[in-house]
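Why this split exists: single-chain examples teach little about how molecules sit against one another. For that reason, every record in the complexes split bundles all components of an assembly together and asks for one structure covering all of them. Below is a record exactly as it appears in the raw files.
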Amino acid sequence: MTDSKQGIHEMIDRYLANRLSDTERDVVETRIVGDPAFRDEVELTRALRDGLRELHKQGEVAPLLTPRTWMWRRSPLAIAASVAALALGIGAFVYIERTATEPDGLVVASLQFEHTRSAEGGPDVVWQRTGSSTLLEMRFDVGLEPARSYSVLIERVGSGADATVFTAAAVGTGLDGQLALSINSGLLEPGDYRIRLVPKPARPMQMDAIVYTLRIAG
Amino acid sequence: MVARTALTTETGVNTEAGKTATAQEFGSDAALKELRAGVLCLLTAFVRDPALAEDLCNETFCVVLERLRRRPLEDPGKLAAFLAQTARNLVMADRRMTIRRRTETGEQATIDHFPDERPDPSDVLQSQWNGRAVRKALLELPNLRDRQLLVRFYLHDEDKASICRDLQLSGEHFNRVVYRARERFRVLLDRRFDRPDLLCLALA
């Protein structure tokens, strides 16, 4: 979505909510008359508002605003893939735990990755490494319409060539619509990482890969 | 509902000066059709009465045609603005006239006690389509927070900043949710619910 398109949508939203000055309102109304594409956007937004009012009138909005189970929406393949990814992570954790020289207790760290990137351009998440081996429970907000599943690629980025440190072929989103991945911190040396989620949509459609960044501080 | 007027570039109106102004002032038939659709869209939103909107739309073009015949616009690029302003003025005039009529006759209050409350059937149908499409679009949102965002923004007209603050969202995330919901809604409306969708809606 371009900034100009975003600006147009914001202006339409404000117009329909009666939040424009008289001058701005005149500009919008002129465009409604003279610009068919703009008018279509206004009519679409108006229909969206109208539809919500209709739902509200019928008492159907409140049930949509309560937590619900989304299991029925997930394909068995995606669910199986999620379980497999979780098992893989836990397996890796257990393996490293057993091979570690110091038998530490189970430490879990939750890392939340938002779909939107920070404006500063820094890493999305920074995790400070501890002395003990830690299970990193990563959760990714993949946005409004998750794909059926995602292939996950974690690459270490640095001065030389990027090195792949972890891959998973198909990971589905969980009950809350987020993608969850658990890996052992032993796999990630201090440094910067790029986590690439490549969507596998349920229907043939173009979906961009989502890229997050992670910094493991030493 | 009043039938739509077949306004073409051959359409003419008699001006006060006794001359005939033609819709050729607006350019091609296609351009005229688009302008008319725009004015009607505006008026329908203003008056929420399709029949009255049609009447006012015709009146708008009559007024503008007359004006153009008498004195062409200095900047032809401002035709859309002129049409929009004329439409708004006519709506205001119509409202003033309605109020005056009420105060003058004294009988209007009696008549107003028996209004036909039934909305236009096509509007009802359209709203029902819209409602179903919105419901489906909302059901497809996996995150409760995203559904809350849309309801608060489009139904309760809360402003973006306060929603972002309450739901701890970035402006970028907000824009993304609204944009995607809008695009999904567009697809659903375009599709107009084929049979499998209706079955899904019945089962949901």
